[in-house]
Amino acid sequence: MTIRWQIFIFVTLLFVGVGVTGSAVARWLETEVVRQSFDDEANGLAVTVQEFLAPADVAALRAGKPLAQTRLGATLDRLERWAIVRRLTLIDRGSGKVLVDTVPGAPAPTLASLGRIGPVEVRPLPLRRSDDGHMLLPLIELTKDGHAVLLVEISADEYVQERATILHDVEVDGTLATLAGLAVAALLGWLISRPIHRLGRAVDKIGSPAFTEGETGSVIQEISDLGNTFGVMHSVLGETVEKGRRALLESDAYRSDLGLAAVYRQQLQPPAGWSTGGADAAWLPVGLTPPAYLAGGLELPAGGAAFAGVAGSGGDLAATVRARAAAAYLRDALARHPMPEAALETELLFGLQELRVVRWGGAGLETWNSAHCRGAAPDAAAWARGEPVALASLGAVNRARLDYYLATFAGHATAGLLAELPPLLDAGEPGLLLVLRRRPSPDIS
Fold it and tell me: DSSP H helical segments within 82-207, as ranges?
């Protein structure tokens, strides 16, 4: 997990935790205040109603006198008109008979469900919803003479609405705290991850000219220190590379003709295999120190041409330079002059020790060999049969092994000799080998 996500999750959870805890505490405090205020108001109303109910009224009601002919009846009309009392029920303690119920038809409690009530106790019952959808709070108490139980129900709509409003405010506060946490977490993650990303880009550029100290700076001290460390690493690496470069330039491997010739030969060597003019070719230098060789091919209007030769010792820088120059000159001359003329002119002009040149057009193969070439000339008959043809400057041992390989594995792909021949040849006998194979013409019948 990245540091940006760690910061994002931690800060968001912190804000959510603080917001939820703070909102829960605020809700509890506000709800407690509203509840105590409502309880005080409800108790006061219940005691007030009790004061209006005289013992004589209770006795009259127990005797069967109508409610309207008592003092309670007149008082109750005013209480209902003012919407203070929504329901009043009077139950005889002795018989359990309902003496008064201002809401006929509504379920009336029994003495058993009310339980034992103290002389001065005002007991609230659970809130209930009336048939018309209003919330009511029932309260029970004894009359002054203790002969009846008085049940008074008052409206609790305002109390319930205040609690719902408090809950809504708590939900809004919690949502705002969460959104604030997300915003702060995103901002902190961006501020901290931005210099870290710059450090990542700077690491990729350490040691290169594109590295700049400006990408490693930060207002965070630890990140700035790490950036300074990367800057030191870049400087040290640059100094080390420069020292190594100077050491290589001043070493014997580059100062001697042998080292320069090896590097020059390696950098300018032609591809190991190619296809041109309807033929596939592959060449291979032989020996721990191969000679200063030249090898290549080109496509001509009527077919193609290839050549292989030796200019001198592999450790001779001048011979290596002459070999590269002779290859370029011969490639140009073959495209403009007859093959014998171009080959002889190249041999004499650059002082080559050996040179073999072939030129073909379809199944016909024309060959030219310098007078100093070792071994047999390329076989035109083998070329016509589609077998591999070798332009080789090899010693006797390696030439014999090459002939045996070509005779045994004539069907192998030309490029395969690059992997199969080196283990068979003697590295102590330097030379050069180029193998050609004519590609069969497509069947148009």
Answer: 111-114, 157-204
DSSP classification of residue 415 = G
Which residues have C-beta within 8 Å of that of residue 422, sequence separation ≥ 6? Answer: 284
The DSSP 8-state label assigned to residue 353 in this structure reads: S
- Which residue pairs, CB below 8 angstroms and at least 24 apart, start in 376-380? 378/436
Max Cα distance, the chain (Å): 156
Q: How far apart are CA 102 and CA 76, in angstroms?
A: 9
What is each CA distance from 393 to 89, 272, 330, 357, 390, in whole angstroms?
129, 17, 18, 12, 9
Asked if 367 contacts 378 with a C-beta cutoff of 8 angstroms, the reply is yes
Identify the residue whose tokens are 């009043």: 88
The model's pTM is: 0.43
- Do 311 and 326 touch, CB atoms closer than 8 A? yes
Buried b (16+ CB within 10 A) or exposed e, 192-229: bbebbebbeebeeebeeeebeeebbebeeeebeebbee
Q: Residue 214 has which token pair? A: 């400006």
CB atoms closer than 10 angstroms to residue 5 = 12
Alpha helices in 205-316 (DSSP H): 221-250, 252-255, 257-267
Q: What is the pLDDT of residues 175-221, one digit of tens each?
A: 887 888 778 777 777 777 776 666 666 666 655 665 565 555 555 55
Token readout for 142 is 């004894």
pLDDT over 50 (residue 445): no
Nearest to 277 by CA among 246, 250, 298: 298
Contact 320, 266 (CB under 8 A): no
